[in-house]
Amino acid sequence: MHILIAGGTGFIGRALVKHFTMQGHQISILGRSIKKTEAVFGDNVNSLAWDNFAPKAEDILGGVHWLINLTGANIGECRWSNKRKSSIIESRIGPTNYLAKVCGKLGKQSPVFFNASAIGVYGLKPTETPYSENTAIDFDQADDFLSEVGRTWEKALEPAENAGVRTVKLRFGVVLGSGGVLAKLTPIHKLGLGGPIGSGKQPFCWISINDVIRAIDFIFADKSISGPVNLVAPANDTQKAFAKAFSKALHRPSFIPTPGFVLKAVFGQMAQELLLQGQYVTPSRLQQRGFMFEFPTLDAFFSHHFNAKL
Ligand SMILES: NC(=O)c1ccc[n+]([C@@H]2O[C@H](COP(=O)([O-])OP(=O)(O)OC[C@H]3O[C@@H](n4cnc5c(N)ncnc54)[C@H](OP(=O)(O)O)[C@@H]3O)[C@@H](O)[C@H]2O)c1
User: Fold this and answer.
1) Which of 29, 32, 47, 86 to mutate to test the pocket of ligand 1 (most atoms within 8 A of CB)?
2) Residue whose CA is closest, atom 48 of ligand 1?
3) Confidence of residue 310 (pLDDT cuts 50, 70, 90)
4) Is the CB of 219 inside a 6 Å radius of any atom of ligand 1?
5) Does the pLDDT of residue 170 top 90, yes or no?
6) Rounded CA gap, 36 and 98, in Å?
7) Phi, then psi, of 107 in degrees rounded to 5
8) What is the third-level CATH fold of 2-175+208-232?
9) Residues 6+ apart with CB under 8 A from 189
């Protein structure tokens, strides 16, 4: 198969490229800089740049079987100034809508279109039952910044969906693996400072990178799956449970809390929405189709990740 990954030089993209390369697929990476892509993947992939993609977009995508778009400015990298918030939204909507229009034009010749999204799309209102793909979402308004990001991002896919292209919205929880959030947190936990954040009672929905890759393979193979798919482990943990399992695997204490007011002072709205609140989400569609998680619990994940003896 020919697989094109946009935004493929990041944490999830690198893991997918490694996996697809081992499976013998042909891979193209679409990004902002051919130099960067070549520095990351060498000549294992065909490197394409957004700047000169447009004139040949239909020809290229017409020859692609699977399109995976992961493009977007990192949500947790720095404080959410108004400028940063615009960049977080525009870096997602622009590329997603552009690719959706090209796929829409291609119609039946379009690749299957997998687009990144996030569980933030559901918003932060507490609910009695976890959010599932059947939860109704009002895409015309949002109560917080992360739901605004998720909702405008998914709406940008409409030109492909309206043209009948098989479109899958990958609603990721926090992805755990070698990179991403875990790479940033490991030094803190190694120092024994990885305790609960705020009360620690806020939901923390996560998924291992291994299960992300396995789920994407699973969805590709089951042609009846399209639309939103929640990519979260079934455990529905709290942030405190995450901190505890993480520190336990490193044989470090996990009782020193980071007070919420300190985080709010340093990170502002980002701390409020990303660290001190969350939502419970269930992977209903994957489970209904019989998907089995390799790492359904935090202990299973961390014991594998750190090869720790629990
Ligand atoms: N990792 C998670 O826990 C998680 C959770 C929820 C949702 N997601 C979503 O899943 C997608 C992939 O996640 P990831 O962790 O692999 O992200 P990542 O490591 O931050 O990589 C995203 C890629 O997007 C491109 N990019 C970055 N800033 C950009 C900008 N300002 N304009 C245009 N392109 C830009 C970059 O590719 P080039 O430099 O090659 O262009 C980068 O490699 C993201 O959209 C993310 O929001 C991830």
Assistant:
1) 32
2) 172
3) low
4) no
5) yes
6) 22
7) 55, -120
8) Rossmann fold (3.40.50)
9) 243, 246, 247, 250, 252, 254
What residues contact 14, with CB distance under 8 A and at least 6 apart? 8, 40, 179
Look at residue 309 in the predicted model and tell me its pLDDT: 59
Residue with tokens 């996996």: 19
pTM, whole model, 2 decimals? 0.97
Distance (Å) from CA 116 to ligand 1 centroid: 9
Average pLDDT, the chain: 95
Query: What is the domain partition of the chain in residue ranges?
Result: 2-175+208-232
Which residue matches tokens 């990041």? 10
Weakest-pLDDT range from 33-42, 83-92, 175-184: 175-184
Q: Could you tell me the distance, in angstroms and rounded to a whole number, from the CA of residue 76 to the centre of ligand 1?
A: 11
Best CA proximity match to 117, nearest among 76, 160, 157: 157
Which SS3 state, helix, strand or coil, does residue 119 take? helix
- Inter-helix orientation angle 298-305/239-249, to 10°: 30
What are the b/e assignments for 266-305, b being 16+ CB within 10 Å? Answer: ebeebbbbbbbbbbbbbbbbbeeeebebebbebbbbbbeb
The model's confidence at residue 264, banded by pLDDT at 50, 70 and 90, is confident
C-alpha pair distances (Å), 261 with each of 26, 101, 238, 266, 268:
49, 44, 19, 9, 9
